[in-house]
Predict the 3D structure of the following.
Amino acid sequence: MYADLHCHILPGIDDGAKDLPQSLAMARLAVKDGIKTTVVTPHHLNGVYVNRAADILSALASLRESLIAEGIPLKLLPGCELHLVPELPDQIASGEAMTLGNLDKAVLVELPVHTVPMGAEHILEQIQCQGLTPIIAHPERNSQLRQTPEMLAEWIAMGCLGQVTAQSCTGQFGPQVQASARDMVSRGLIQIIASDAHRDRRRIPEISQGEAQVARWTNERTAELLARTFPLALANGQEPDLDLLGDTLPRQRRSWWRRLVG
Ligand SMILES: [Fe+2]
């Protein structure tokens, strides 16, 4: 059983599912892959899309009704993929920016494709001061973090979490992104595997293949924690018990992780 913490399944409000039939097709694929819970995460504040918490809740209610009518056993939770912009902490405080599951414990944040904006770390710290854990969406797809994963390592040491996209692990975004995904997973900088699905073809809601690849890079226990245990905890509003990773990563990688956090 999986909980998918990153999925653009709400119809017609961002670059994800274009209409209800596509949302339903995505939901069927998710169930087929063993996904039990999907957090809906439309873009917000990325310069193109604005999806306020209230709008997400009403779109979510509508899709939930359709899933019930169609007999698709997928639980949907509210969420959002929040662009890391200076006004984000204020938007979180005012309730305009949706937190993961609307639980006020964690937020999924995304960076631009190529750069890490000036002041990114400060915004992350502000979010933490609000009592929320920032989850960094697909750092392996950001050019600057690929070149300097040490920057990501600092954020993880601060208490942020890293989310790798399943299809990055399996090579759908090319060899550079795949190599970076492997590097970040192996260094202990990733705690969550999610689909970041946008469609019912190509960018589909599937986690199992990513889990299998991470198992080949590390071991089955690590892959299970990243694909199942930690996302399920977060979907339930619980802090993932990262100590469970303790002995699962290879020795040299674990000692690197200890140096980092120590
Ligand atoms: Fe996304």
Observations:
- Residues 53-70 form the longest helix (18 residues).
- DSSP finds eleven helices and nine strands in the chain.
